[in-house]
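We now fix the convention by which a protein and its fold are recorded. The integers have meaning only within a learned vocabulary of local backbone shapes. A record is reproduced here so that you can trace the correspondence yourselves:
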Amino acid sequence: MDFDPHALVGSDVADRYRLEAVVGEGGFSVVYRATHLAWGRTMALKVLRALPGLDPAHRDELLAAFHREAILLAELSERSSAIVQARDVGTLRLPSGVDAPFIALEWLEGRTLEDVLLAETRAGAEPRNMEDTRELLAPIAEALSLAHEMGIVHRDVKPSNVFVVGAPVSGGPRGTRTRGVAKLLDFGIAKVLEGPESAGRSVTALQSFTPRYGAPEQFDKRLGRTSPRTDVFAFASLFVEVLLGRPIVSSDRLGDLARVALDEARRPTPASFGLLVSDEVDAVFARAMAVDPAARYATLGAFWTGLDLALREAPMSGLTYGSSRPASGLAPSSSSSSSLSAAESHAALEGTLVSGSRRAAPHARVSDIPIPAASLEVGGPGPASRAPIAWRSRARAFGVVTAFVAVAATSLYLGRASSRRDAPSTSAPAAASLNATAPVADAAPRCPPSMVLVKAGDFFMGTDAPTAGKDERPAHPVHLADYCLDVHEVTAAEYKACSDAGKCKRSTPENAWEGITKRQRKLYDPLCTISSASPDALGSHPMNCVDWESAEAFCAESRGGHLPTEAQWEFAARGSDGRIYPWGDEPPSAGLVNACGLECVGWGRKNPDPEGPLAAMYKSDDGYPHTAPVGSFPRGKTQSGIEDMVGNVWEWVADFNAPYTKGPRVDDPRGPEKGDERGIRGGAWNGGDASWLRPTFRFSAAPEMRSHGIGFRCAK
């Protein structure tokens, strides 16, 4: 490149680098090829562009933020080789006399993924299949998973920010293809330039993203702030682009790109382009690319695990080739879930809730934004749309019949049921059976993207098991009409958005119960996911330290709904088949649920509560000493695809607590009209007794109680 905005080529900077050429430039920085004068090694030097219009105070603050982000990048790159390695950070003096920060990075030989895909298309190479795409993008998934675990968002995942270290390999049935290792570039730069509020209006021009890979909330801020879910959307878009061998939208116009991102009626999943994938695989992409951020996977790790599981469920469908490699973190573990007696279990739970011990409105849409009509080629023939034809023939070669079988249960998968908002309800009678005088059954409710439809059904609520508590008996027949239920527990970020808008009571990030001690406040208040010390760090974790009234008000204001009744909660968790746990009869383990494992016990030893120690439910580490981001344990989902029904946090339900009684079938029971305590269901991260995870297990608490172990989800 001849362009050198800083006029630095040929000069020595920072007493250790000789800048040789400009090798890249973007809206925020210029990248130089440099030689380290002491080491004699080639490096990449990224220099921040001049920022006109900033007063000295704001500029100093922005420079300090850039340095902090460089340090963060260094920490990330030390933990993963999939992130370009940061070697140095500093400040250099430009010829203009202005100081500019720089980051020294490892020098990579290869090309960006954007250039790779373009070159392969020109060479006539066939687009990658599912297995090859997974292999290529696995390092990027690893890098983003690590970042999300640390509460860091990339914000600009796209092919030009993925670098493939390698060279083209000629020959073979798939044509000339680049083989190499992918690395993620530009980590954190967009975050710094977008984040500092103190920088004021003078830097709003830098608050940008790449529209082609932008998530809906980046086009319409009313959908919420950027979060790890933003990266999930962009990564899923990138994945589909690699499968196609071309961008998923042919237009470059901003309005066209926004319309595609915000169109709930059609999501750009693999199946929407004619690629032969199973319903399960396509549902994973539909969820990852949902318009509503709350309906997406909470982290990239959760998406990657969900994709792996979906591919295993249909190993002969279309692009799926199967793999014997287990997903990260999914290795089965032995369970030490010896049950306590019913009385001991309730006594232990009382201590858990108060001490952590074993004793112890639908969001606004952008339909009012004028967007010009576009000549889009989403799903249609494009300049490089050979993939659907080639992959259809490959699917036939594998004898794939199951790819065309429509399973009724797939209507409950996210993205399929929730995105087709104008489709007729599957519970309505067939049109051919209707006549002018026949009564028509009520249509199933249309669930928002963050919810899933739980179909009407009959079940026996409670249990007659002799080992169960008295309040779980007797089993009695119940019928429930169709209803919607949140896929995930309400997150701290969702609650904060509601309170920031003045629609929900401001959270008090403190535990509150009768008899709480100063020691317990010191131990457990920092575990409130809306913490005054770090209000955004745990935004994807379930909201906790919330009383019943605040939870019910959120459901009314944000969802237009209510807390689920005990019957609705239990039916969604166990279904009609009487399964022991939401996922089936397999005992709880670290890959299924966030309960108390070795990590939780370790935290308890470092932070002892005089009321009693924590006890492990299983002798393994589930990766989260406290709460986990919602959706982190997809193997534990229910038949309807609802996640975290047990574990993570207990969940408030609508009913006052009262004993069960025998009698005829009851329709949609609501519980007693009066009472002293409200029900809670599902167990939490600090639970040491497996019986607490049974959907039939009942407990209750004073409605004004706020505990680090209690959260909620909404029904409608």
